[in-house]
Specification:
Elements: E1 21-26, H1 32-37, E2 41-46, E3 65-66, H2 82-86, E4 92-93
Antiparallel strand pairs: 1-2, 3-4
Length: about 90
């Protein structure tokens, strides 16, 4: 309920990350799995005190699934299919 705001209003909350690491975040509105399937997630890197060793390049990879009716490769609007999500049967993985 902390993340829900009535139409036309906003809410703010803060948090503190106590341990360094790579974290996945996502929206927390019902139905969470639907929003995650719609790509409402990301990564957050929390470096240790003093930072990480310098490197030539950083790359972070995160996987997502789409639960649609249309077969992979078809263009146009893709309707979300909750039954596929609940059965963990994505149409494609990105």
């Amino acid at each position: 309920m902390l993340t829900q705001a009535p139409l036309g209003e906003s809410c703010v909350f803060t948090f503190q990350t106590l341990d360094p690491g790579l974290y996945v975040y996502h929206c927390a509105t019902p139905m969470q799995a639907h929003h995650v399937a719609d790509g409402m997630y990301g990564l957050r890197l929390v470096e240790p005190e003093g930072g990480l060793p310098r490197i030539a390049r950083e790359l972070y990879v995160i996987q997502g699934e789409r639960y649609t009716q249309r077969p992979f490769g078809q263009h146009g609007p893709q309707e979300f299919i909750p039954k596929k999500l609940l059965a963990e049967r994505p149409e494609d993985v990105v």
